[in-house]
Design a protein that fits this description.
This protein has three helices and no strands. The protein is mostly helical. The chain has a single domain, classed as Roll (Ubiquitin-like (UB roll)), CATH 3.10.20. It is globular.
Length: 81
């Protein structure tokens, strides 16, 4: 007899939710409005496996946003708030 646990649909539920790769869930999380642009750029690079410095977030004028600017200010500049 097997020690596996089966759900209502008969699927194997012996694996915990923590066994799944964190990368999949991380990509769908929203940026905090009080977060910094620099942290957001770093997070995007890490989540998608991009080289350091490859992500630049720009304002409406096309210039790079400062890394100490907040996500809230960026959203307001782009009329998302």
């Amino acid at each position: 007899m097997s020690s596996a646990v089966y759900g209502a649909e008969g699927g194997d539920m012996s694996k915990k939710a923590d066994d799944r790769p964190a990368d999949k869930a991380r990509r769908f999380r929203s940026a905090r409005v009080d977060g910094k642009i620099g942290a957001l750029e770093t997070r995007i690079e890490k989540d998608f496996g991009l080289p350091r410095g490859s992500v630049k977030i720009v304002g409406r004028d096309g210039k790079n946003k400062r890394s100490d600017a907040t996500v809230n200010n960026l959203l307001a500049e782009w009329n998302w708030r």
